[in-house]
Write a structure and sequence with these properties.
The chain is mainly beta and 301 residues long. It contains no helices and 23 strands.
């Protein structure tokens, strides 16, 4: 059975981090109080790197600290305290696959005592890719396919998360309704220039191709995807499109002209961020010969 299936967060920057002592639970011991305690650090900020972790940064507001203590951990769980050397202003929390809501705060210390704690920063760490197509393990989309002669329903689902090289990818599978079998078809990810796709299986040396450029696109833009030519039909802010019984707004669309047969093309309609693909049309010599319409979906991004 032949499908016209959609062929579909940031380059991870490895940052140096300060050595940290073995984590200890509970509050750190209080130094003897005499002299001037350091000023409290502030302006705590974080950057997340999917599949790697969180980088926490803060402003060092004192010249006389001898150490910092960073308190961190999952919200509603026991917090850890890591001791860092003087003049530290960054901490790398290697979370890898540990999704959750995390809290961070820091204070400075010297022989005279501890500063007040900085403000507490809360960070949501999720293995997901936001963009044109919302990607996260567990997301799925069910479609109705109609070619005039055959009619069936099938489901696309994000079945796994994987780091390929330094990039986060999400494995898309396809299955026919009422069957247990699911075929892995390709890896997808959202990046700064659009949606890229890798064949399954893939390794760290595989080359990713951009099928859908987004969001910096204009009507009439065209580019090559492998050997096919893709034209942007409706860029952001998009149009209203009726699919089945639903009217979607903010729909953007593309048309892919197949290199081996220029009379044959695929038109894609997508709702960025909220849904993803909502309709595909297979076109031959100007006529729609098959279409795939979204019936229902589950998106948690």
């Amino acid at each position: 059975m032949r499908f016209w299936i959609l062929a579909l967060l940031p380059v991870v920057l490895f940052l140096g981090c300060q050595d940290k002592a073995t984590p200890v639970h509970g509050d750190p011991p209080e130094p003897p109080a005499h002299g001037h305690v350091p000023n409290a650090p502030d302006s705590v900020k974080a950057s997340t790197y999917v599949g790697f972790g969180v980088v926490v940064r803060w402003s060092d507001n004192s010249l006389d600290e001898t150490k910092f203590v960073l308190e961190h951990g999952r919200r509603s769980f026991t917090m850890q305290h890591d001791t860092l050397v003087a003049n530290t202003a960054m901490y790398w929390d290697s979370l890898r696959l540990a999704e959750g809501d995390y809290a961070y705060r820091v204070r400075a210390g010297n022989d005279s005592g501890w500063s007040a704690w900085s403000e507490t920063l809360f960070v949501s760490y999720r293995l997901k890719s936001d963009g044109l197509i919302p990607l996260r393990e567990g997301n799925w989309w069910e479609f109705s396919a109609d070619s005039g002669q055959t009619h069936y329903t099938y489901r696309h689902a994000v079945s796994a998360f994987r780091l390929i090289g330094l990039d986060d990818y999400y494995l898309l599978t396809a299955s026919i309704a009422d069957t247990l079998a699911a075929d892995s078809i390709y890896y997808l990810r959202n990046c700064a220039t659009g949606v890229t796709q890798l064949a399954f299986p893939s390794d760290s040396g595989a080359h990713a191709d951009t099928l859908f450029r987004y969001p910096n696109i204009h009507s009439g833009d065209h580019y090559l995807y492998r050997e096919d030519s893709i034209v942007v039909l409706n860029p952001p802010p998009g149009i209203a499109k009726i699919v089945g019984d639903t009217t979607f707004t903010g729909v953007i669309s593309y048309q892919r002209f197949l290199n081996h047969d220029r009379s044959h093309s695929i038109r894609y309609y997508l709702v960025p961020q909220r849904v993803g693909l909502v309709r595909e049309e297979e076109i031959r010599s100007g006529d729609i010969i098959a279409h795939h319409d979204i019936v229902t979906y589950h998106v948690e991004n």
